[in-house]
Design a protein that fits this description.
By secondary structure, this protein is an alpha+beta fold. It has five helices and nine strands, in the order H-E-E-E-E-E-E-E-H-H-H-H-E-E. Strand 6 and strand 7 form a beta hairpin.
């Protein structure tokens, strides 16, 4: 696909941008301070801030971003590496501080189309999960409620009925009390007279 340079320059200078700022950039032999503008998966670099035409751009597809141990001259250095069949291209960049370096590395890593595609797929999956959960809650609200079974009644252990052995002994005691004595038979206590029929 042929890209019109004029349209590309206009796009590079248009707002909004995903990230912009100064980085030290090494393409061939030495580090040079450049103004970088990240828009989508395109990383433009200019000689200085406010320039209309970029010096170049990097298409951030199929690349890896990692810390660089090779460049000891720059403290906060990282590299962008493109691996193509039979060729490896490495671009070294350096920031002013640790926070800036980490932020640029994260922004560049998340800029590729493949990453965005994965993020969109994950967000769609989460949205479907929320929709399914909401549908299930709506269905549960519309279902007729079944009556709740009352809790099982428990007996108070202190309210026990007397056991059968206690009942029988109690009955026997009552029988003994009711059984008349010989004196009750001989004498009628109601009128204090002797019952001669028994004698």
């Amino acid at each position: 696909m042929k890209i019109n340079e004029k349209n590309l320059y206009t796009f590079a200078n248009s707002k909004p941008v995903d990230r912009e700022g100064y980085l030290y950039f090494k393409r061939d032999t030495k580090f040079n301070k450049r103004w970088f503008v990240l828009k989508g998966n395109l990383l433009f670099y200019f000689e200085k801030k406010g320039d209309k035409e970029p010096l170049g751009l990097l298409l951030l597809e199929g690349c890896t971003v990692e810390l660089s141990a090779e460049e000891e001259s720059q403290q906060y250095c990282f590299q962008i590496q493109f691996m193509t069949p039979g060729d490896i291209r490495t671009y070294y960049m350096s920031a002013d501080c640790q926070t800036s370096m980490e932020s640029w590395m994260k922004s560049i890593t998340c800029a590729s189309y493949d990453y965005m595609k994965l993020m969109v797929a994950e967000l769609q999956r989460q949205l479907e999960e929320i929709d399914n959960r909401n549908k299930n809650q709506t269905l549960n609200k519309n279902e007729p409620k079944t009556p709740v079974k009352p809790p099982r009644q428990r007996q108070n252990p202190f309210n026990k009925l007397p056991s059968s052995s206690n009942q029988s002994s109690h009955s026997a005691a009552e029988l003994e009390v009711r059984r008349p004595t010989i004196w009750q038979v001989l004498y009628d206590t109601s009128d204090y007279s002797i019952n001669t029929d028994v004698l």
